[in-house]
Amino acid sequence: MKERDIITLDNNAEYLLLDEIEYEDKKYFFSVGFSNNNVDYSDYIFLETGIDNNGEYVEKVCDEKLYKALLVIELTREVTDNVPELKAQLEEEINN
Amino acid sequence: MAMFDASKHNKKLIDEIQKAIDGIVVTGKNLDDDNVSIINGIKVPTDEKDRLKKLIETLELLDIHSVSRDSLFVFEELAVDSKKFDDLMLLLKSDLGIEVPSIINFYGIIPGLNIKTPRPMLLAESMDNYEAYLKSYYHKNGYDVTVDDNGLRSPYPHEKYLWKKGEAVKPDNDDYVCDYYKKYIEVHRSSPERNTEPQNTDPEPEPTAPRAEAGRRHYVKSRRSLKDKILNLPHDINQNLKSEEFWTNVKKVLKTVGIIAGIVVLGTLAVKVLGPALVGAAKGISYIPGAVAAAGGASTIYSAAQVARIRSTLSLLGITAVGVTLVALYRRYRKKVLDRAKDGEEPTTSTTPTNNGNGPQNEPTGTPNFRSKEEVDNYFKTKLAENKKKLEELDIEEKMVKENSTSPEEMETALNSIKTRREILERTRSQILEMQIKMATFYADFQNVRPEEAMGGMSL
Questions:
Q1: Residue B165: which of B76, B70, B275 has the closest Cα?
Q2: Which residues touch B326 (CB under 8 Å, ≥6 apart)?
Q3: What pLDDT score does A47 carry?
Q4: Rounded mean pLDDT of chain B?
Q5: pTM
Q6: How far is CA A74 from CA A57, A65, A68, B90, in A?
């Protein structure tokens, strides 16, 4: 799975994968519901991804703490993308 | 009706912006005519022309006299820590394109119901959608409002309170209703269809499109790449979905809307600190041709000029606030990792600064902490000097290329490379200048943000 993919789940729900996040050794996608070529603005979720014997699967993130952490990561990316100088500053801070 | 002088409340901002304008004008006086432009009859350095225009526009937005209080939007969300910034910035709703108070106005527990206030209406959302959401939200929480014969609903509980810093405040006037409800009545009454057909009081049916269910694994049946148009995205975006650049823009629009939708769970203070920046980001996606703001419908509310002005205005406040918050956030994150290292634990994510197992590190010394305005000034002076030096080196390189190239092709290639690098450096310079004014103006105000508060009690 990768950004820009529209995935169809086993219950026929569809999601557009907007942004990949790696957090605590797991891969998540910030995703938005998708139906009949329409974005469902009321259905933004984080999907945890994984593979087991039955194939690729996703699981909606419901844990509030994890949800907040992922949202802050998205938020940080969004804001730093808008302010290159800030991004550079943060990178400097992290690398030091 | 009593008229209101909003410029008094915006004075601090106005003064700072005026100071910046004065600085540009003074510099212009010392330059040769070759390097100056004339703006409003004033000589300014050519490379400062755009910034000056932006500052003047912002000043015009803030310099508001003799207006009714109701016509103003108050940015009180910037209240941080013990510092009070009530009425820090007032803007005309008409300049903001605000028709209904929509985003990040209040969050808290509704008295008597013990449920949280519903999420705010999103920019990309219609009133009908939002009304359906409100009905469903309250119904799920065991509360329904009455609907009269004309289909007009009575106000929801949260609409009868004033909300200050996430707390419900009982208004003096028992008949008080919020601006959104007033707007709802106005829209409802102006619609003939709504007036003649009473609304069904039953809750909205659940959406028919299936959704991912909580607490279970969903296996992926199939996947495809987004190449077809999305019906409720603006036309110009759809036209170009196949290009990578436009996918980036679509993603940005959708992510911003989604983050705003999600931010409600982050906690009151984080919303107050971070919210305005995101509002600015959502409204400021003006570089997508034809698509002025976030998806569907918003383009009918905001003109491109409005969006540009909103963006520049809000970024002066919001992005700066976020800047400080994020630095605090990373510091806290980093501290946690260092603490883990101290306790002998391995860091758990690839993006974490690992310390290479050498035990706790000292605090970084290379990062400016901006504890005073002088430090801010010095930091940006250094950055600008570095930028200038690189530009001068490019001038020398260009001269050498012209003198020493052995063929026209070689010279063209080298000059193109220099041109590209010069453009990047010039863009960087304008970014540094922009950040300089933002940081110099507001850093002092936000330096007291504590990480745990900035995160609204959240633990990473």
A1: B76
A2: A76, A79, A80, A86, A90
A3: 94
A4: 60
A5: 0.36
A6: 22, 14, 10, 29
Q: Which chain A residue lies closest to B228 (C-alpha atoms)?
A: A37
pLDDT band at B428 (very low <50, low <70, confident <90, very high): confident
Residue A29 has pLDDT above 90, yes or no: yes
| Residue B365 in this model has a pLDDT that exceeds 50 | no
Q: Which residues of A touch B298 (CB under 8 A)?
A: none
Q: Which residues, numbered 384 to 443 in chain B, qualify as contacts with chain A under a Cβ-Cβ cut-off of 8 Å?
A: 428, 431-432, 435
Strand stretches in chain A, DSSP E: 5-9, 14-23, 26-35, 38-52, 55-60
Touching check for B213 and chain A: CB below 8 Å? yes
ipTM value: 0.87
Residues of A in contact with B351 (CB under 8 A): 22, 94
In 3D, which of B155, B158, B159 has the Cα closest to residue B178?
A: B159
> Does B459 sit within 8 Å of A41, measured CB to CB?
no
**Bigger pLDDT: B357 vs A17:** A17
Beta-carbon contacts of A61 under 8 Å, excluding residues fewer than 6 positions away, are A28, A45, A46, A47, A48, A67, A70
Q: Give the end-to-end CA distance of chain B in Å, rounded to a whole number.
A: 50
Distance CA B301, CA B315 (A): 20
Q: To probe the interface with B, which of A36, A65, A71 has the most B CB atoms within 10 Å? A: A71
d(CA B370, CA B378): 9
Collect all residues of chain B within an 8 Å Cβ-Cβ radius of residue A11: 210, 212-213, 218
pLDDT at A13: 93
Nearest residue on chain B to A47, judged by CA atoms?
A: B212
Among the ranges given (B36-40, B199-203, B220-224), the one the predictor scored with the smallest mean pLDDT: B199-203
With vertex at residue B252, the alpha carbon angle to CA B314 and CA B91, rounded to the nearest 5 degrees, is 15
Checking if the pLDDT of A94 tops 50, the result is: no
> Side chain identity at B106, as an amino acid letter?
F
Closest CB from B209, B256, B364 relative to A78: B256
Is residue B365 classed exposed, middle or buried when 0-12, 13-18 and 19+ CB atoms within 10 A define those classes?
A: exposed
Asked if B254 lies within 8 A of A57 by C-beta distance, the reply is: no
Q: How far is B419 from chain A (nearest CA, A)?
A: 21
